[in-house]
Design brief:
This protein is mostly beta strands. Helix content is about 15%, strand content about 35%. Strand 6 and strand 7 form a beta hairpin. Helix 2 packs across helix 5. The N terminus and C terminus are likely disordered.
Length: about 500
């Protein structure tokens, strides 16, 4: 099929990088006569630019700088014909001698790079790496597409409810809190591989891989359910205060923190023996929390519109910071390196950037309604914010004090919860179909069936779906073209490197 006919890029590995540092040889004149103009065309036709850039200047994904090429033509040709690493061989049947000579001539015609100190941004990076780390990153790339749909069956109880999604990247599992159960999906195959049933109303899952244990917050049971990560069997239950919601594992204190929405506090558990080691009064309705890995936990307080800072070892509140101009903060993510909190709320619909050391609000940006999840990806500096209106707002952290808009992706109504897979750069979201509004009440006013309300008829289960961020996979189905009748979606975002993209394309994606 057409998508399988993709030119393989010229991928020169570490061997060439080492050779590249050698002095320019005097026997370059032995190279056959070649046309730089034709070589420019062949460099594109054979896909060399995919890894090494249009000018052979190198690329962030895999290819080093190869222009101007400092090695003799004979060594260059030998390596291209019989590479020593993951690069596929370019035999004479694939790449003729005169074409290779033209490519070499093109590379030799490229100018030498300027000295780093002559470039303002690189000079800044050398003098102040922390401030320049984001500015020297590759520019952000948008273009996310729907990749996959995974059907889910209805949870027992008849009322559809999705909350936090958690990815176990090492075990390749995705945990979806789903009403009275936790669905477990294979992160790579998109297949349901397990289920933890017979719960009441689940919200979050925290994983402690070192102990092989997971912890589920069951809001309607006022408890945390302990389970075995391998077998998914329940191994215990720990009582909490009323309405346990978000639950996280703090690696600094090696404790589980459960944030109780009705109890207005946090129950703290020792995961090694399941004992409650303390309860922290918070003074409001807690929402999503993040740990900085150094002993501080930051938690949104929805009704007081502030962030509380918790010392995870002393179990005390260290600070309270207002989040104005936003009110009702619910979603939070953190850039731990640059000490930035990304907080989103619903009144008004805003995302704000906060300094995690002093609570100062640095920037605010508009988003759509019903936000419920923020995710920060440190490798790319991208920030994702998913909302109930069926949008993912994608921003780039240009510097620690500035976010810029990359794109806004259309998903499905209700797809407000989201999780990130650091191994594949995938994002998962989930939602349900929503039934029609009920008949008008006796007073004449019809309630709005736009959520998980008791007035709404049970929605049809939709599917766990996937979005793919990709530079070339134009054939992947876009979210807006999916037939939304009948089933449910969670969206997955994939940023595959060039070789992986070819593999996907060869499968007809």
């Amino acid at each position: 099929m057409a998508l399988a006919l993709v030119a393989v890029g010229l991928i020169l590995g570490t061997a060439l990088v080492i050779i590249q540092a050698a002095p320019r040889s005097s026997n370059l004149s032995t190279a056959p006569s070649g046309s730089a103009e034709n070589g420019n065309q062949f460099f594109t036709v054979y896909g060399c630019y995919e890894c090494h850039g249009r000018e052979g200047q190198g690329a962030a994904v895999s290819g080093p700088r190869i222009a101007p090429n400092p090695i003799p033509f004979e060594a260059f040709a030998q390596y291209v014909r019989k590479p020593a690493d993951t690069m596929p061989p370019y035999t004479k049947k694939v790449l003729a001698d005169h074409e290779l000579a033209d490519i070499y001539a093109f590379l030799q015609s490229r100018p030498h790079p300027p000295a780093a100190q002559s470039i303002t941004l690189l000079k800044l990076a050398a003098e102040n790496p922390r401030a320049a780390s984001h500015m020297t990153a590759s520019p952000p790339v948008g273009g996310y597409h729907l990749l996959k749909e995974v059907p889910l069956n209805a949870a027992k109880g008849g009322r559809e409810y999705f909350d936090y999604i958690i990815v176990d990247a090492s075990a390749r599992r995705v945990y979806l809190t789903h009403g009275t159960e936790v669905k477990v999906v294979d992160a790579d195959r998109g297949k349901v591989v397990g289920n933890i049933p017979d719960l009441k109303r689940v919200h979050g899952v925290a994983l402690v891989e070192a102990l092989g244990l997971g912890f589920i917050s069951d809001g309607d049971d006022a408890s945390v359910v302990e389970f075995d990560l391998k077998t998914l069997k329940v191994t215990g239950k720990i009582k909490t205060d009323a309405g346990p919601d978000n639950v996280i594992y703090d690696p600094a204190s090696r404790r589980i923190f459960i944030f109780n929405g009705q109890g207005h506090d946090s129950t703290v558990i020792n995961p090694e023996n399941g004992s409650v080691v303390g309860t922290i009064p918070i003074g409001g309705i807690p929402e999503q929390a993040v740990a900085d890995g150094q002993g501080m936990i930051y938690d949104n307080i929805k009704d007081t519109s502030e962030v509380v800072v918790i010392d995870s070892r002393a179990l005390t509140i260290k600070a309270r910071w207002p989040v104005a101009p936003v009110r009702g903060p619910v979603a939070m993510a953190m850039d731990r390196e640059h000490r930035r909190l990304f907080i989103a709320g619903r009144d008004p619909n805003l995302l704000v950037v906060m300094d995690a050391d002093n609570g100062k609000i640095i920037q605010s940006l508009p988003i759509t309604g019903g936000v419920d999840a923020n995710i920060y990806e440190p490798e790319t500096g991208l920030l994702f914010s998913s909302t109930r209106e069926g949008r993912i707002h994608i921003f780039h952290e240009d510097s620690p004090d500035k976010l810029s808009v990359v794109e806004t992706v259309k998903t499905e109504f209700g797809a407000k919860t989201m999780a990130f897979d650091p191994k594949t750069h995938n994002l998962f979201l989930d939602t349900s179909d929503f039934g029609p509004p009920p008949p008008p009440h006796r007073g004449g006013a019809a309630s709005q069936c736009r959520g998980y309300s008791g007035d709404c008829p049970p929605p049809n289960i939709r599917a766990l779906s996937a979005l793919s961020r990709n530079r070339t996979l134009a054939a992947v189905v876009r979210p807006e073209s999916i037939d939304s009748s009948g089933t449910d979606y969670v969206h997955l975002l994939l940023d595959a490197p060039t070789r992986e993209r070819r593999r996907l394309e060869s499968l007809g994606r």
